[in-house]
């Protein structure tokens, strides 16, 4: 509409926690007087899954949704479309609004090709006898609330394994591995606090191998059985120096195993998406086979570890997830400047990204990302692991869990793209 010079949604900040109040304004700058029935805003939080399956030889799309927030407010004009219609004088107008986020546990914002968790403000300018202009402003929810200082996360986790075996007629000799993880919850940017003791009395050299794995489970609750997808990504990998036969070696992670920016652990908060992590520790033999493998559940938290009464408290900032994990690998085409979403494959090489969710990090991440030459972040998915082991890990993680920046709102009109497009073909409404 030619007489609307500017239509925008502006928020007080770009990241919010559960229980906070979202303050913002709708900006409307017009060049002439016109009849305006109302200006309405909606706060919505929605998880959406969608992918294609083959049924009887035909490819079909299946999807599911879960809503966490759906609040509405009329910030100017009339609630109901009756009686006379007021006139909005020309000029620059600001219509303030606010919404109180629920105190309940909200899942973190999340973006992947298969599923999303999105929070946004949608504003509608209700003009009689015309297609109402609509705008959407996305923002990040930091959640769920997981504090590294909770007692359950401060308990050290220890494992010890020993091998005394033979291979046909050739004795391999005893081999032992003891590992202690000082605590089980970390914020991105912190270093995994791990100590290992390797006693190699075998006939071959061994290496310590550490891998932090991200597990993501997507579940669509439709039909009798529903559908699910399970993905795994290597977050970081470390290989130690060789331990020669007859030698003993000790490893202390100190500041070397720094976590990149990662989505928060999400277990039991959203019925469609579970995100959890595990640290795999093993000894790598000369044949590249693994021995004495052990596993530790690791929780990615939202509140960092603090040293009581210390003047040096962690400095928190927010950053998108690294690009080799779920939650960081994908940018929706609707958030890429200049891209027109046509339902086809996304081009993730666009230079300008209008929105990406961000996650809690501490300042040590920036100073240590360039160190640690032993890291080999892998983008390849791991082969499917034993489902029983994975269910055990998920149960362990579930028992522990208690309960960049967004730019200018996209302005659309009904008939063009009034709604937020989902990763495949459906749209937020």
UniProtKB/TrEMBL annotation:
Residue ranges occupied by any Arrestin C-terminal-like domain in the UniProt entry: 1-148, 171-305
Any single GO BP term: protein transport
Record protein name field: Arrestin C-terminal-like domain-containing protein
Taxonomic source organism: Daphnia sinensis
PANTHER family named in the record: ARRESTIN C-TERMINAL-LIKE DOMAIN-CONTAINING PROTEIN, ARRESTIN DOMAIN CONTAINING PROTEIN
GO-annotated cellular components: cytoplasm
SMART domains: Arrestin_C
Superkingdom of this protein's organism: Eukaryota
Pfam families: Arrestin_C, Arrestin_N
Family: Belongs to the arrestin family.
């Amino acid at each position: 509409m030619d007489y609307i010079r500017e239509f925008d949604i502006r928020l007080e900040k770009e990241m919010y926690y559960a229980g906070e109040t979202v303050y913002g304004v709708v900006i409307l700058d017009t060049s002439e007087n016109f009849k305006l029935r109302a200006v309405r805003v909606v706060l919505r939080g929605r998880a959406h899954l969608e992918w294609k399956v083959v049924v009887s030889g035909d490819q079909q799309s299946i999807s599911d949704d879960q809503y966490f927030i759906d609040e509405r407010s009329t910030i100017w004009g009339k609630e109901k479309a009756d009686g006379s219609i007021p006139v909005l004088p020309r000029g620059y107008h600001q219509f303030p609004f606010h919404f109180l986020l629920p105190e309940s546990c909200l899942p973190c914002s999340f973006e992947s090709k298969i599923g999303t968790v999105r929070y946004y403000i949608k504003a509608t300018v209700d003009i009689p006898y015309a297609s109402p202009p609509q705008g959407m402003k996305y923002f990040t929810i930091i959640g769920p609330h997981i504090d590294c200082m909770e007692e359950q996360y401060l308990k050290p986790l220890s494992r010890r394994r020993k091998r005394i075996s033979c291979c046909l007629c050739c004795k391999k000799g005893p081999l032992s591995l003891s590992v202690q993880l000082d605590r089980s919850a970390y914020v991105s940017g912190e270093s995994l606090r791990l100590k290992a003791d390797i006693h190699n009395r075998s006939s071959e050299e061994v290496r310590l191998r550490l891998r932090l794995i991200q597990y993501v489970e997507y579940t669509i609750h439709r039909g009798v059985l529903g559908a699910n997808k399970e993905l795994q990504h290597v977050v970081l990998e470390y290989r130690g120096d060789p331990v020669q036969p007859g030698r003993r070696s000790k490893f202390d992670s100190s500041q070397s195993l720094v976590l990149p920016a990662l989505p928060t652990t999400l277990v039991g908060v959203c019925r469609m998406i579970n995100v959890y992590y595990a640290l795999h520790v093993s000894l790598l033999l000369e044949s590249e086979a693994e021995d004495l493998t052990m596993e530790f559940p690791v929780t990615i938290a939202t509140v960092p570890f603090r040293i009581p009464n210390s003047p040096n408290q962690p400095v928190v900032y927010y950053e998108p997830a690294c690009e080799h994990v779920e939650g960081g690998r994908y940018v929706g085409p609707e958030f890429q400047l200049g891209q027109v979403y046509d339902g086809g494959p996304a081009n993730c090489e666009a230079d300008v990204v209008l929105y990406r969710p961000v996650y809690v990090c501490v300042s040590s991440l920036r100073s240590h990302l360039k160190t640690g030459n032993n890291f080999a972040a892998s983008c390849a998915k791991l082969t499917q692991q034993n489902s029983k082991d994975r269910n055990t890990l998920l149960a362990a993680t579930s028992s522990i869990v208690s309960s960049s920046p967004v730019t200018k709102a996209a302005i659309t009109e009904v008939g063009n793209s009034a709604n937020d497009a989902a990763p495949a073909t459906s749209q937020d409404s």
